[in-house]
Amino acid sequence: MKFGVSTVIFSAALMFGVTATGLAQSSDVTFQVPVNLTRLSVDLTKVAVYCEITSDALPLMGTVHRAVKQVELTPSGGQLVQTVSVVVPIPILDTSNGKTAATYRCTLSGFSQSLQRWSPFGDSLSLPVQFRLSPALADLSGNFTW
């Protein structure tokens, strides 16, 4: 069984304000992610768009300076076609001492009702058939400066 998938434009809109000391008030980074998934297994009851920003200017989350957000969506009839706004909250931003570089990555995954688990999509034969897509999806990633 072959599943079709396509993703189109990906854009990031950054909105924040930096004070003279290099510390910014809370702000958000919004990713607009158009998703066009067709011929999905009907066993997939949820699709998640997960975005992560890493930067030394962000607070520590565990052992990494990062901010994350996941938005869950419900496919209908094996399809999910919509533009998803993923708003990653930035509680505080410290750009002092040249800490202005950031990287981002957004990924898609699905939830299988029968397997009761999440998995990223891919075209590997080692994946359960519910999560196989052709062509395989590439993560959306890049760099920016605060």
Which terms would index this structure?
146 residues, mainly beta, Immunoglobulin-like, six-stranded antiparallel beta sheet, 12 strands, 0% helix, disordered N terminus
Write the layout of secondary structure elements.
Elements: E1 5-7, E2 11-15, E3 23-24, E4 27-37, E5 44-54, E6 60-61, E7 64-73, E8 80-90, E9 93-94, E10 101-112, E11 117-120, E12 140-145
Antiparallel strand pairs: 1-4, 2-4, 3-9, 4-8, 5-7, 5-10, 6-7, 10-11, 10-12
Can you name the CATH architecture? Sandwich
Helix fraction by DSSP (H/I, runs of at least 4): under 10%
Strand-pairing-aware structural class: mainly beta
- Would you count the extended β strands for me? 12
Task: State the domain count.
Answer: 1
Q: What spatial form do the alpha-carbon principal axes imply?
A: elongated
Number of helices: 0
The largest β sheet comes out as: 6 strands, antiparallel
Strand content: over 45%
Distance between the termini: 44 Å
What's the level 1 CATH class? Mainly Beta
CATH topology: Immunoglobulin-like
Order of helices and strands: EEEEEEEEEEEE
Mean pLDDT: 85
Cα-based radius of gyration, to the nearest Å: 17 Å
Low-confidence region ranges: 1-21
What does this entry look like structurally?
This protein has strands at residues 5-7, 11-15, 23-24, 27-37, 44-54, 60-61, 64-73, 80-90, 93-94, 101-112, 117-120, 140-145. The protein has one domain (5-140): Immunoglobulin-like (Sandwich). Helices cover 0% and strands 54% of the residues. Strands 5, 6, 7, 10, 11 and 12 form a 6-stranded antiparallel β-sheet that branches. It is an all-beta fold.
